[in-house]
## 1
Amino acid sequence: MSQQIPISVNVNGTLYERAVEPRLLLSDFLRHELELTGTHVGCEHGVCGACTVLLDGDAVRSCLLFAVQVDGHGLVTVEGLAPDASSDRLHPLQEAFREAHGLQCGFCTPGFLMTLVAFLEENPHPSEREIREVISGHLCRCTGYQSIVEATKIAARRSA
Amino acid sequence: MTSRRFFGERFTRNEDARLLRGLALFVDDVHLDGMLHVAFLRSDYAHARLISVDTAAARARPGVVAVYTADDLGAYWQPGPLLVAPPPIDGLVFNAATQVPLIKDKARHAGEPIAMVVAESRYVAEDALVDIVVDMDPLDAVVDLEAALEPDAPVIHEQHGTNLASHVVQQKGDYQRAHREAALIVKRRFHYDRGVAGALENRGVVAQWDARCEELTVWDTTQAPIPIRSGLARMLGLLESQVRVIAPFVGGGFGSKIMMFYPEEVLLPWAAMRLNRPLKWIEDRQENFYATTQERLQIHDAELALSEDGHILGVHDVFLHDTGAYNPYGLTIPINSQCTLLGPYDVPNYYTEFRVIFTNKTTVTPVRGAGRQHGVFVMERLLDFAAKELGIDRVEIRKRNLLSSDDFPHNHVILFQDSAPLVYDSGNYLPALEKAVDLIGYDEFVREEQPRLRAAGRHVGLGIVSYIEGTGIGPYEGARVTVEPSGQVRVATGVGTQGQGHYTVFAQVVAEVLDVDLDRIHVTTGDTREFHWGTGTFASRGVVVAGSACHEAAVAVRKKILGLASDALGVAENDLELEGGRVRVKDAPERAVDLGELAVRANPLRGAVTPGTEPGLEATAYFGPDRGSTASGVHAMIVEVDRETAMVEIKRYVVVHDSGRVINPMLVEGQIQGGVAHGIGNAFYEQLVYDDTGQLLNASFMDYLLPTATDVPRVEMAHIETPSPLNPLGVKGVGEAGAIPTGAAFAQAVEDALAEDDLEIREIPLSPNRLFEMIRDARATR
Ligand code: FES
Ligand code: FES
């Protein structure tokens, strides 16, 4: 078998130490090695945004990174937004998505959430134009985007 | 039926929390011990004879467990079933050719699978694809529809000796007479090209054979788990009870995930049994562009015969339809096109003829709209051109031809895709058109705004079109409703769900009958262990057909509940009512009994169940509509075109929609907004570009553009509710409507914006490039 590189990475507050092939994509590492399957893969070429996660707080596409590149870094995936699955509490942005019907099949949703969490952190009171600009880097085939825009506005308003 | 309202309310969805937390199970999330991974070697050529495949090196690669080619399949190698037999139309020509699991003699489209590699990881499986040595002899490809019928064209399916897959003529009245009597004939040629479904989740299959229990479990991104199970059982020689097919959360379907059977769906279960190891195959996006079915490409030569005052006397339409390499769906799409063309209009005479052509391209099956948009495009464009020539306002010419509300049921005589005559059950078209005119501000726009903006050098235009959509066809769906001893209610139905919100809608349907809180109603869909009769989610039929079955089952359970409660409380059934999970006496509400308690009584541990009754508070019901219910609507949009760059900005978009009774407006609006986005993609961004060797030139999301949040405006909506008489809920389907008339409205609006160029848009998709060319050519010819 090919060469294995040891890495250690913090995901959603848990430290994982693994040995991985250099060519293993971060998306595959998260999904199949750590079984954090909330991060989705829609294109494997950086266009759809479904695989977006936070790398040291920045939204990045996990299909465009190798797992070895995040050695020593911290990641947040969609599972980390409202970590207590036994409680009804969702992250305010997740809550807003539910209220505004910001998801249909839900496949694209984790990616949108991660980008928007980082975006709202930086720009808590965005205009509609700005919201549309930032999510135009993501594809959704179901919703026609309007409800995602509404959800973002709701979340922004609440955080005021 | 109950005091509380569950219909017409914007309930949020039961399924959302799981999806939002990233905990919902999609096929690629299934992890099983000892699971192996599959990759497919696919043909690089669109049309080529297969001479040899050498898999020795691939088999020898460490980590590879097995490699299969067509020869390894033995008797299991069979072409897929013909899914929809053609309707009984006189004089019909129909040559069937369905897809095969792995190619044996030749490749008929690029991306057709040649060999299947099973390995310890997907990475290794893909490495091994490179080890396989394939010798193929390329043949000329059939790409162009008209050239395909030339006598010297290469033939794709030798057994038929022709690339003609079918030829159909349907008629109503006497078009020739209409032609003779017409004051005006408008005649044009229209092109409507291919696109992909573009579900964000690619396809995938996981198969597990449990040798001890002799049970096969298949997780499949299908819209039709039950037919998949029945087919697999038959092919593998198993009892249906030995096969469980689960369509868990599915990341969008839009028609492309209901193509029984895709090669991978046939191969993984077979190999999992042979190897006695669980297998997983997940399609990647590039494969999706080649291996997942697509829709479109029709060329219409159409003419409209009109009287001087703009009344339609007849339509004559002859078109070619590209089915790609195979035609498993029979005539479904072209028949949709020919039936939907008539729209909401009174068309006394209609001659419609089509030829379906095999080409060396990915197979075409129904995708959102399923050919309806082609019919709408042709009719609406013809009306636009007629209005211009007759000097009649475009809204006015439509008004003059709409069917009136007392024309229903309206029989169009020709046969629809379900083999029944095309009959519109109900509709109320004029108010919808008037409402759209009002919402978009048609009169003001035409009279004031447009002239003002034009004077300022801006190119703004408006498009407004009507359409109908046959929805909710049979054969049937079923549902089982069970009240558990906890008082919670379980609902199981066979349709799969791909984001439409069925969990919530079906819960609302049941709550409306039983008056139980929505969070106490648990809906299961898409698992054949839970429910194993039914067909699938297609043709905008989920809510209409399966929803009606849920209703009927709930009504039967309600009857049992009242019977038991009447015994328990010693009160006549008529004096009882259901409220909040209890049955109470109408005049003495403190005398009540919980549904859970009744469920316990219905399943006694001692004593006998009286003859003629059944244990349990449970009922199963089926619903099969005689024919489809006809949804309808009007789309209107205002665009601004940058004449230098040919970019189009959609300023406003209005939809007035009649999908019968609305159970959950939030979900209906979501379907429409999403459908419009899909339609906008079809109209302006999405086009599959094939070269003349049948190679797809833009097989990625970088080159094939889906619309994004900056391309899709907020859709302003109004509902008109004309309940369908064909089902107990009065509902009509809504899943495809948003995408159907968009191209027609877009073309009209862009033409209007560029009035000074006097363009005629007779093709979809446009793209900024194509529009730029059209503007340039129009300038040159002036
Ligand atoms: S999967 Fe990473 S951007 Fe599409
Ligand atoms: S909700 Fe289905 S792709 Fe976005």
Note: The longest helix of chain B spans residues 542-569.
## 2
Amino acid sequence: MTRVKNLDDLRKMRDQLQSKTNLRDKSEKPEDMVQIKVAMATCCIASGSRDTMNFFVDELEKRNIEAIVTQTGCMGYCYAEPTVEVTVPEKEPIIFGNVDTPKADEIIEKYIKGGEMVDGIIPVNYQKID
Amino acid sequence: MAYKMHLLVCGGTGCQASESAALVENLKKELEEQQLDSFAQVVMTGCFGFCEKGPIVKIIPDNTFYTQVSPENAGVIVSEHVAKGRRVDYLLYKNPEDNTPIAESKNMNFYKKQIRIALRNCGIINPENIEEYIARDGYLALGKVFQELGAENTIQVLKDAGLRGRGGAGFPTAIKWELTRKNEADQKYVVCNADEGDPGAFMDRSILEGDPHAVIEAMAINGYCVGATKGLIYIRAEYPLAIQRLKIALNQARNYGLLGNDILGSGFDFDIELRYGAGAFVCGEETALIHSMEGFRGEPTLKPPYPAQSGYLNKPTNVNNVETLANVPVIINKGPEWFNQIGTEKSKGTKVFALAGKVNNVGLIEVPMGITLREVIFEIGGGIKNNKKFKAVQTGGPSGGCLTEKDLDISIDYENLIAAGSMMGSGGMIVMDEDDCMVDVAKYFLDFTVEESCGKCAPCRIGNKRLYELLDKITKGKGTKQDLEILQNLGGVIKDTSLCGLGQSSPNPVLSTMRNFEDEYHAHVHDHKCPSGVCKSLMTYEIIPDNCVGCTACVRVCPVGAITGNKKEVHLISAELCIKCGACMERCKFDAITVN
Ligand SMILES: Cc1cc2nc3c(=O)[nH]c(=O)nc-3n(C[C@H](O)[C@H](O)[C@H](O)COP(=O)(O)O)c2cc1C
Ligand code: SF4
């Protein structure tokens, strides 16, 4: 049984438990953090997009980056799957193609953390409608 | 590893009635079958408030808000949304103005002006899991009170915040706590009033169902501040789901050492017991509630002595409402300045209302004090149903009054509602349109108070009955000018001479409708007419001779044989026999029947 002994204990417990529910708070204000959308149609899944998504969620958390990872339907770049759209606060969204886990790692380290460009950007030829 | 997606399903009483429990089971099964159960998690939460369109499913992190989801929809939600990230359009809420789907709740008019403080966890956490409460700063306020603030500073925080009672009277919470604290005794009690007798109000139930730990934590804080080691929750037995969630929550809190002996190493002992009420409105009055818990008849007694002086078992007792308590932990965590910048000068924070009646969006809403009735009814409520005309809004339930068009722009707070001739009450808000007869509405509320009066004092027991009879007479077209005067006088006497708040406020619906809808009373009394066509006794069904072809269809359909006439001759309705059921009018193909 987990008896909470004092305030510090409670705080520690909260910090550990937070990762289980904080997605619900983060989703209220996605524009304040890094947003990643992983295309997740049947063909994308077949080319490994779910692994990519899982990798992003788990690694961003481990590396303490405030981010929210969602999935969307097909983005239309089926030649470059898995495709991922990354929006860093106050920057334009960028779409990357062929994002397997090593590529995802590079995106996190170089683009999200360092602000450097990474290969594999798909030029945007469409207007986003919300 | 944490789940990447959360499917929040409303598990409030309303949505459970529409099979949300089966929906949860089906979603879990589908996730398992499609091997997504380590990716997404199904969470049964408390009420989202949008009960009109339940059951609700909200998908995190993309915030999609599905309405009226049936257990059969589980398959498509999992295979389309969870698996492929495609929203299921036909389950989205449709904007009533242009029928376009709205995917996220924050873009719905119903939610735009709401601020959720008392309901902060409802619809977000699983109320049956203490860990989800702790993850959202649960019990942190209690720890801070023990270790950082102490009792007196905590009371000061509530004073600075300006928190007032949400159970009806709006009494400053900090002052009540201070009074109970100052009264010395070997034993003191804190009581949570979860009787919620106002017809149509269900905010207290929803808080207990959706976030029971918030109330438990607040009661422990309350106990520490006033020096009480025992808490009691008085809850009506008609709330089985709230009771069940409370029991689960109490057990979890005990297991985690957040109730019981030496809580969080503070040396403070505190535990809570449940007491069940039989659902009498008067037992929500604090002295009656205390007597009911003591095993006596649920009858009010004179104040003073106030419960803070001599309450349960004649010991100092602090009684607070569920919603009042739900505000306490978050005020302590976020500070009084955060709270008191919301609201008006004298009424701080938010109030939860149960919006009901003739509006498009009925449900539970939490709005900042100071919002106008117009914003609540026409923006959050989405306006009047079927494009009818707004007529009145009753706030404060059977103790409140009717407000009209001219009051729509007053900002809602305790003082303004009283100045306008109504009151905040516990947060019932019933909207009426042109088809409602105000005399009939007043009669409805009086019927309720006559039924619920405990009978202890004569003005309320006998006076309200007489008021009811007079109203009944008026709705039957037999009222006189003198009756209107008697209503006024008697109403005043009942208010002045009744023992408790029930009788002191029960004439309000009559007096306020008489003030605001004088014409309507006169129409009933002088012209024997009900302008809204509600009071049946005042209607007459007649045949328009020019239109009647003598087909005998109406003669055959009339259940009491009130229509006479031969084939191809103009028929006649006997006013004496007619029971005004309207069957003839529905049947007639030639528009030959009118109602006056
Ligand atoms: C007839 C009557 C019914 C009441 N019903 C309730 C009720 O159902 N729930 C409630 O919290 N307070 C009710 N009250 C108000 C209580 O007497 C008391 O003022 C309140 O519980 C104090 O808590 P608060 O200061 O947190 O509002 C009622 C009062 C009267 C006169
Ligand atoms: S006012 Fe009515 S409810 Fe209150 S004590 Fe008198 S009879 Fe009972």
Note: Residues 402 and 513 of chain B are 6 Å apart (CA to CA).
